[in-house]
Every structure is written in structure tokens, then in C-alpha cells.
Specification:
With about 250 residues, this protein is α/β, with parallel strands linked by helices. The protein has nine helices and nine strands. The chain has helices spanning about 1-15, 15-25, 30-40, 60-65, 75-90, 125-140, 160-175, 200-205, 220-225; strands at about 45-50, 70-75, 95, 110-115, 140-150, 185-190, 190-195, 210-220, 235-245. The protein has a seven-stranded mixed β-sheet with strand order 3-2-1-4-5-9-8, with helices on both faces. Strands 6-7 form a two-stranded antiparallel ribbon. It is globular and about 50 Å long. It starts with a helix and ends in an 8-residue tail after the last strand.
Amino acid sequence: MKNRFAAIIQARYSDKQFAKDYYSRSKSGLKPYESVLVEKYLKNCREVLVVGCGCGRETVPLALKGFNITAIDISKEMVNYTKYLCSEFKTKAKAYVMDAANLKFKDNSFDAVLLFNCLIDQVPSHENRKKVCNELWRVLKPNGICIAVSNNALYPGKGLCYWREHVKEIPSFIAHWRERDFFDRIYEDGTKVYVHLSTPFYLRQLFKKGFRILNLTSTESILSQKKGITRYFAPNIVIILLKRGTQNANL
């Protein structure tokens, strides 16, 4: 099952037509809440790693802001479009085909690592997500910043549609609990898309070793400055982390 998820992810983002369409939507630049995060948390950062760069939507505006950007994606098609978008906007960034669970960078290489666009939800299985966290910790410099955005499994959706979906998944999960996480989902939008829905509690657990949580919030709260329980039921959650320690506590 987990291999099937990985195959679905690779097939989707390597599809030439999907990549072309994705590229056409990648000139929009940073989302408003992403700009706020960059301004607030990356003030003292220079070397920045963008994980799951897609076609360069985040890479290009960050490079134009003066950051030294390194971008990675598992899809060669996506990386090629990132390079093309950089050329189109006359800016520079290093872009590589690479698995986030096996980064080819030296220890302590980056001031910040960004997993925007719900990238963490595209990593199949808890064990693989732990490997990604280990690698992010390793390549970050001491006191380096990590920011991850996720779809929120607690978001009820219109008419509680997502909560109803979770209830319907219970029998399937009981039958196949050894093969999948409860919040693994496969949807259709022209091609199959795998997504893992996280909860705020899960993200805390995932990153608790090796990182100090600076903030756990929602994309809406970032823009409105509102705090409190609303983040637990927002569509997207954001976790901002600071690397701590000198040994990889996740291993």
C-alpha cells in the first residue's frame, strides 16, 4: 500500500500535462500568509532550502528577495519548470531532483527549510515523514528555522463533509490498518492524488524531538493575528520550528 502511494505521487507530479498546467499557475508568487511568514521568521536567514518546489512558485519570489535558494522536488518535470521559471524572471536558484527523506546536502547547510504548499502531506507513511524530519534537522544550521504547512484533518468542511468522510473510512482502516495511516486519502482531479491529512497534535508529535515549536497556528490566523482554538479547526495549519540540540534526537 505504501509503495502504491509513492507510485501515485511520482506519477502525478511527473505527468507532462499536469506539470505544464501546474507551471501555468506558478507565476502567482507567494501567498499572502507565506509572505508574512517569510518577513517574520526569515529576517536573519540567507541560505534557504525549498522542499517540494513544484514549478517554482515559491522559489522565484524568494530568490528575487535576495535569498540564496536551493530547491528540490522528486519530479524531474517539476525541477525543469522551476529552472525555466527562474530564467523567465531573470533570477537564479539551484534546483535538484531529490527525495526529502534522503537529502544530498552536508550537515548544517541551511538557515531555513520551507515545506510550503502542504508538502509534508505528500510524504507517504509516518516512518517516511520521520525520516524527512531527521533530514531537515540534519541539514539545518544550529537555531535554523523550519516552517511546514499541512492540510488539517480536524477541518470539518462544508456541511461537515470531511468529518463524514472520516467516519466512512473507519471500516476500511480497521480492515487495512497494517497497510495505511487513518488519514491517508486518495482523490481524483484528472490524475490520482495522494494526501495525508495531519492534525495539530500529530505535527507536534512529529517534530517534537530535535525542534522547539515557536508557533502552531493556521494560515487564517497568520493574516488576522487571531489566536486560540480556531487553529485546531482551520483548513490549513502551520508549524514554525527552531532547530535545537547538537545530535539528531529523532533517530
